[in-house]
Design goal:
It is globular, with a radius of gyration of 26 Å. It is an alpha/beta fold. Helix 2 crosses helix 8 and helix 4 packs across helix 7. Helix 7 links the parallel strand 5 and strand 6.
Length: 435
C-alpha cells in the first residue's frame, strides 16, 4: 500500500489518492448484455437453459430448485452454521422491523386533509451471486426486509454450481427468510428473466442484489425500460475507509482493510490517519497478514489501488472521508462517537476498535447493501422503505375547497394551465350557487 502525505500533496496528487479503480467497462459489455436481454425476452426458458450451459458449464433439467435440493442443503450445513444463519436473520429482522413507518394524516387547513400510506411492492426479485464467494448474507439482507414489508411475491435467482445445485447455504438462508422457491439462473440472463418474466420465472417490479459488471449493466438497462423492472441502488466494487489515530492497533486496522480488499480486484481500502507511525505499521501488517490469506491473487490487485493517507488531524481526516464518500467508514479513534455528527457522506459507519466491518456484513442487524463508488453522497443503504411505496392521499370537504380552491385556480392561471383552473372553478361555481 502506498503512503501519501496530504499536506505535501498538491490537488492532482490528492485527487489521485482518492481516485477509485476504473470499473470493468469493456466497450462491448452493454451491447452483449442487450443481446442477452433480447434473447431471454424472445426465447424465455430455452434461453435461460442455453445460457446456463454456456456460462455456468452445467445442463439443467429444470430451473427451480426442487424440495429435495432444499432438504439436502439443510443436511449439508453443520448445526453451528445453521445457528449462525438463524442469529443473523433474527438481528436483521429486529433492526428492519423497527423501520416501519406509521401512517401520516393531518389537516393542512380546515377541511383539507393530507395523508400518506405505505404499500408493499407486489413482486420483487432477489439476485444472489455465487461465484468465487457464494453469499448467503446477500439473501438475508434482501429477503428479510422484503418479507417484513409484506411483498407478496419474492423471487430468488442464484447461479448453479458445476454439479447443477444451488449453494446450500444460500438455500438454507432463503428458507429461514420465508422463501421456498429459488431458480438456478445467474448473470444478466437472470436479471432479464426477473424483469420480463418467462414460463418459469415470474416477472417482478424491482430487482435487488449485487453482481458483476454484466449483472450491473443488465439492472441498469432493464431499469431504463418502462416494460422492465426498477433496481435497488447504484453499485460498484466494495470499498472501506478507515479513520484511525495513534490509539489504534495496526493489526486491527490492517485486518479491516483486507476484509474489504479481498472482495474483488477492483475493491479499494483506504486508511486516513494523523499518525505516520501508524501508517507505517499498518502497511507492514497488511503485507504480513496477506501472506496467510486464501485470496492473495485478488488482494495483489486491490491493494495496488489502496492508500494510506497521512493528514494533520482528525478533522482533516473526516473532511477527506466526506469527500470520498465511502461505502464503509470505520472510526478507530478515541471516543469515536463524538465525531459522528461530522460524518456527512458514508454508506454505513462502524464506531470503535471493537466494531469490525464484517459484523455489519453478516449479523449486527444493519443492511450490507450500500452505495459504493461515491454514490453515498446522494444514496442510502438498503432499508425496509426500498421494498414499499409511499402513496399520498388528499381529501377536501366542500368548505375546504371553498377556502383553498381559489389559491389553486390562481396558481393554475399563473402557469397558463386553464384546464387545471377550470377543474377547480367549476366546483367553486356549484358551491357558490348552492349557497
Amino acid at each position: 500500500m502506498k503512503i501519501v502525505n496530504w499536506l505535501e500533496s498538491g490537488a492532482p496528487e490528492r485527487r489521485a489518492a482518492l481516485a477509485r479503480p476504473v470499473m470493468q467497462a469493456r466497450a462491448d459489455v452493454n451491447e452483449r448484455v442487450r443481446d442477452i436481454i433480447a434473447t431471454v425476452r424472445r426465447d424465455g426458458d430455452r434461453a435461460l437453459f442455453d445460457y446456463t450451459t454456456r456460462f455456468d458449464g452445467v445442463s439443467l433439467e429444470q430451473l427451480a430448485c426442487p424440495p429435495a435440493e432444499f432438504a439436502a442443503a439443510r443436511a449439508a450445513l453443520t448445526p453451528q452454521q445453521h445457528q449462525a444463519l438463524e442469529r443473523a436473520v433474527a438481528n436483521v429482522e429486529k433492526f428492519h422491523a423497527a423501520q416501519q413507518l406509521a401512517p401520516l394524516s393531518l389537516e393542512t387547513e380546515a377541511g383539507v386533509r393530507c395523508e400518506r400510506v405505505t404499500r408493499p411492492i407486489g413482486a420483487v426479485g432477489l439476485y444472489v451471486p455465487a461465484g468465487s464467494a457464494p453469499l448467503p448474507s446477500a439473501v438475508i439482507m434482501s429477503a428479510v426486509p422484503a418479507r417484513l414489508a409484506g411483498c407478496p411475491q419474492r423471487v430468488l435467482c442464484t447461479p448453479p454450481a458445476r454439479d447443477g445445485k444451488a449453494n446450500p447455504a444460500v438455500l438454507v438462508a432463503a428458507q429461514l427468510c420465508g422463501i421456498d422457491t429459488a431458480f438456478k439462473v445467474g448473470g444478466a440472463q437472470a436479471v432479464a428473466a426477473l424483469a420480463y418474466g418467462t414460463a418459469s420465472v415470474p416477472k417482478v417490479a424491482k430487482i435487488f442484489g449485487p453482481g458483476n459488471a454484466w449483472v450491473t449493466a443488465a439492472k441498469q438497462l432493464v431499469a431504463a425500460d418502462p416494460e422492465g423492472a426498477a433496481c435497488d441502488l447504484p453499485a460498484g466494487p466494495s470499498e472501506v475507509l478507515v479513520i484511525a489515530d495513534d490509539s489504534a492497533r495496526a493489526e486491527f486496522v490492517a485486518a479491516d482493510l483486507l476484509a474489504q480488499a479481498e472482495h474483488d480486484p477492483q475493491s479499494q481500502a483506504i486508511l486516513v490517519t494523523p499518525s505516520q507511525a501508524l501508517a507505517d505499521a499498518v502497511v507492514a501488517a497488511v503485507a504480513e497478514q496477506t501472506r496467510g490469506l486464501s485470496r492473495k491473487a485478488i488482494l495483489e490487485h486491490s491493494l495496488a489501488a489502496s492508500r494510506c493517507i497521512v493528514v494533520p488531524d482528525i478533522i482533516t481526516a473526516i473532511a477527506v472521508s466526506n469527500d470520498y464518500a465511502p461505502e464503509h467508514l470505520i472510526l478507530t479513534v478515541r471516543e469515536p462517537r463524538q465525531w459522528l455528527d461530522r460524518i456527512i457522506n458514508a454508506g454505513s459507519i462502524f464506531l470503535g476498535e471493537w466494531t469490525p466491518e464484517p459484523m455489519g456484513d453478516y449479523c449486527s442487524g444493519t443492511n450490507h447493501v450500500l452505495p459504493t463508488y461515491g454514490y453515498a453522497r446522494a444514496y442510502s443503504g438498503l432499508s425496509l422503505l426500498d421494498f414499499s411505496k409511499r402513496i399520498t392521499v388528499q381529501e377536501l370537504s366542500p368548505a375546504g375547497l371553498k377556502g383553498l380552491g381559489p389559491v389553486a385556480a390562481t396558481l393554475a392561471h399563473l402557469e397558463g394551465l386553464d384546464a387545471h383552473a377550470a377543474a377547480v372553478e367549476r366546483r367553486l361555481a356549484v358551491l357558490d350557487h348552492a349557497s
